[in-house]
User: What shape does this take?
Amino acid sequence: MTNLKNLLVTAVALSFVAAIFAQEKEVPPAGGTPKDFTLPATNSFGLENGLQGTLVEFGSVPKATIRIIVRSGNLNEGKQTWLADLSADFLIEGTSNRSAEDIAKAAAAMGGQVNVGVGEDQTTISADVLAEFAPDMVKLLADIVRNPAFPASELERLKRDRLRQLSIAKTQPQQMAVAEFRKALYGDHPYGRMLPAEEQLAAYTLDDARNFYNNNFGAQRTQIYVAGMFDAAATRAAIESGFTDWRKGPDVLIDLPKRATGKVVVDVVDRPDASQSDIMLGLPTIAPGHEDWIPLQITNSLLGGSFSSRITSNIREDKGYTYSPFSSISTRYQDAYWVQSAAVTTDVTGAALKEIVYEIDNLQKNPPTAEELDGIKNYAAGIFVLQNSTPGGIINMLSYLELQELPDTYLTDYVSEVYAVTPRQVSEIAQTYLREEDMTLAVIGDRSQVSEQVEPYVRGEEE
Amino acid sequence: MLTRIMMLLAAILLSACQSKDGPAAGQPSATSTTTTSAFQVPIQYHTLDNGLKVVLSQDKTTPIVTVAVYYNIGFRIEPRERTGFAHLFEHMMFQGSQNLGKMEFVNLVQSNGGVLNGSTRFDYTNYFEIVPSHKLETMLWAEADRMRSLDITQDNLTNQQGVVKNEVKVNVLNTPYGGFPWLDMPQYANVNWYNSHNFYGDLDDLDAASLDDVADFFQQYYAPNNAALAIVGDFEYADALRLVEKYFGAISRSAQEIKLPDISEPRQEAGKRASRLDPQATRPGFAFAYHVPERLTPEWYAMGLLDQILLQGEDSLLNQVLVKNEGITAEIEGGINALLGNMLNYQGPMLWLASFIHDADVEEDRIVAALDGVIQTVQNAPIDAETLQRAKVKWRSSFYNDVSATFGFGRADLLASLALYDDDPERINRFEAEMTNVTPEMIQKTAQEYLRSSNRTILVLEAGASSGNAEVAAND
Assistant: This one.
């Protein structure tokens, strides 16, 4: 390897010289004419008990994605943190008709597996199957969602699994940062209670789990989405026969959080000898549906929400402080916060924060050029097409509209609203919604090395 | 491994350990004439005069197109004194070429409405963009520009050394279970240095990389005759081929013959056990790995189904025993080329591995006994017809997921891999039939030879932290 290397040095040097002395740079070819993008057609229907179904025939690969989304999540726990998760664990542990092993084998024989996920506002029961099995999988999922058996024999095992997960979560710096940040923003509201105490989790009973299900699952909280390739008529018939006689169940619970109105002081959580600090800097912001919602998305993409964004260009591509910085707007039902996250090398924790704050401040004071903003708009329009180009993506988009009570025109007008954003508006959005003086900072790192570095940003005594 | 945008898959070409005719015992017989699956990937395949392999696959579902360039340089064959260099170099490919300065490549893709990424795997380094379909020409121009003319400064290199060191910290050094088992296990299970070094790189080696190394590596491996280009999506075949010729046709072949090291692994004759202490972990981890049969042999197809029978999904035997019956863990993760790709996108020696985290009071002997018990069931008797059929259905479903993953990139990944390794992307349409042909006897024979305990490596992660951080957002 070494000999070969020496031989090659000359040739390589020549090619580099050629590059340096090239006269003028070529201009990238513009490409062809944009093609029309049409949103996939949807077929929605409702049952008398309030359950709603949506079918989207889409794509060229013979598979179907089925998701049942129930408006029951961690929000519905109150202070019983992770009870929604423990309760949902039982969904694949058997029904009044099938054992857990029966469920697993039946799903596998269709090329799928039943997955259950609990979020802040929703529980999702889903499966991907080969196209020909979509109606049969709907029937299986109906049994799972409607008739869970809650076998007492599985309680201790499932709790042990959750306790193990909790123990691990409390050692993972990114999860720790989210827990701290959320607690500061939402306090005792379920959105702020990311992790239970061990004793609390260990004390949950079978009745707790079953009662949570009984109090929160029902037809009028439930949406079923099927997207991909499948027999639409047979699948609709399976939904109707599987769910028509399900109980209506409770109304959707609305419990909006009281949110922090200004900077909250969060002490550095100590991870002795940590080689990086995990930081989250942000604040509550407007909810989906607000007239500034799309301009805020664009502002976020330009500031820190894309690879070519200003903060990423600065602290990654210029300074090399970090690998994967990103800003995002995290949403729940009629609630959102903006946050910049990054894992930065310990000794440049303060320096990284300084650059982040500089970029926010600079955007507030100086509108971007039309060229820079146009690039971000094109990016947003392209992402929108991608988001509507897979069965899972299409379901995500439709269920987002449903959860946030957005009209269909949100989708049809999205691209034109993106292109209507002006440079001045971006600066105004940054001034109005990205107020550095109101931002809360959570830091997970080596306290002895970073406390002084982050002090001005934690307390807000100076910029 | 470049950005956070998306998870990737992967594989690559001619290894020194395998004859060009392929393994005599392993040639599939009469594949294309037996079962043909209903689902077929449309393919046009060309090789340019300079050796660039070009695979085109139309899909007009959505007006988007994926452009993927695969170079036959995986991390396992990087230079001995430069661990982690293949991956560091991947970052260099975003730092500037003749006509695109630093950040200009990224900006070009994003401002045209696209996403991009690159990654480094066992047997390839890849780069791809997914863009609105009318921007195909723009992306071909840009990929051709950096294939022809890398242009890197010391500042760019120093910057990316910082970025990559932060990547290693965030993914490995500063997190519990970092690198377990995907980065650790090959280092214990393999004996050939090329398969068993630290692919992410020692921090000292990363610091030692020079501009000469960058130029040398580019010259050696980044040439059209060492690459495959896959285009998947909404385009016309004749237009795409014309544009590929226009932008890539004039790029020169590599000046020297591309020499690849011997990456073969000897047959493992004795079981191995290793452990490492993770001072950040509160619960122990357990991982195991077996060397898998050579690609494309009947045993290898059988191994693909054994993976389904034993490990994939809730119904698999290991899940039923370790999760449901024994309650040792909540989930087992793994597979062939797991965590870095799938069974269809690598070339060369490979592991079937799995791992999980368990409580401290579960003793290692109990885990090994449970594992042995499961393995023995597939060794001692032919698998029953129902279980085998279920495995075949699961494999097909999972294959369709791979083919449709990430907006068409998954399809491009398999096509480029098969072009690079086998000069045969059409193989993608024969895998289903090969799997259909696997018999219970072949499953049993493969389990007996390849799931021997003497072909196994166990890696134990010892938990060095007593408990999680008590300060973290505790709620009462």
About this structure: Chain B touches chain A through 109 residues (CB under 8 Å). The two ends of chain B are 39 Å apart (CA to CA). The domain at 272-475 of chain B is CATH 3.30.830.10 (Cytochrome Bc1 Complex; Chain A, domain 1).
